[in-house]
Amino acid sequence: MSESEQSNNQQQPDPAEQNMDNAVDQGSITNNWQQPTFWLFLGSVISVWLDQWSKAWAASTLYTGNAAAAGGVPVNPAELQTKVIEVTSWFNYRLVGNKGAAWGIFKDLPETMRVPFFVVLSAIALGVLLVVYYKSPGQKLMQAALVLICGGAIGNLIDRLQIGYVIDFIDWHIGVHHWPTFNIADVSISIGVGLMVIDMIRQMIHEYQVAKEAKTETA
Hints:
Elements: H1 3-11, H2 15-34, H3 36-62, E1 85-86, E2 91-98, H4 111-134, H5 140-163, E3 166-174, E4 177-178, H6 184-218
Antiparallel strand pairs: 1-2, 2-3, 3-4
Helix pairs in contact: 3-5, 4-5, 5-6
């Protein structure tokens, strides 16, 4: 064999090695899609984006005042002036500023400690949620629930850091009786909690059935 033929053979890649490299690359891509961190990031980003977009829409559409700070609304929620858009006989859009947590809990804390309190509380809650998320491999329903809760918590945390309170605008009511006004972040958290409860019930039923089968086998 001549030197030129040997050189050509050395330069030509082995088809088997190429196929193996392609398989490794495709496997890496597949693994990335299956990684818990990928779904945590994607789900949280979508949830936060929907929440912040909806709040920006509510502020620009419903706020009728002039004193607007960051986010298109006043720093003091008592200065919020809103118009009401009636969607159905039981569903309105109206702008409300919530200085507290759900149902206004802790809204009367002193201003110097109210926002720091909620920021620290949110950071701790997010840390716990992340630990539980990564300790629940294979529990798709539980992980989906935690992603929704994380996204909702981050959405409301952004409001607190930006303007000092949470923007709510979804108003459900029966006659003069109104459910506390809420937002998309609250919806995300509520759905997440609901999925978490369903997953826990499923797990309890599964453990009960396993224990019952084991007891039957030993009888």
